[in-house]
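Input sequence (150 aa), recorded before submission:
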Amino acid sequence: MKIESNICIDDTKEQIWKVITDIENSVNTIEAIEKIEILERPASGLLGLKWRETRIMFGKSATEVMWITDSAENEYYQTRAESHGAVYISRLQIETQGGETCLRMLFEGEPQGTFAKIMAAATSFIFKGATQKALDEDLRNIKASVENSD
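Predicted structure, token format:
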């Protein structure tokens, strides 16, 4: 399952980067996030930052451990999570499009193992719509936070 969402934000790449990489305070940026617990903090940069995130998904609290696997300052970072028989990859990417600064979120869930693949095939249409709505709402929350932080 692959999902993408995009939103343009009236601010600089640097300001957007500042907000999206403040993982510890994302509970104050994204309404669905209830709690963040930093598990591992790299000596410098983002690569290897690992945290436990509790958020509302499908009307219930869900907790996942995520970590940053790749990043380029003021451009993008990518996270990985492994849960319920699947690997989840998310990417937040800042782009300039026709003079506007936009934030794009890419999400991919890949089931691991036969049972997880069967379950994913049977239920992906249900989760795809709800996940798309969640990504769109996260981006609206980030936009509001960035544009109100100046």
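Checked by second reader. The mean pLDDT is 90.
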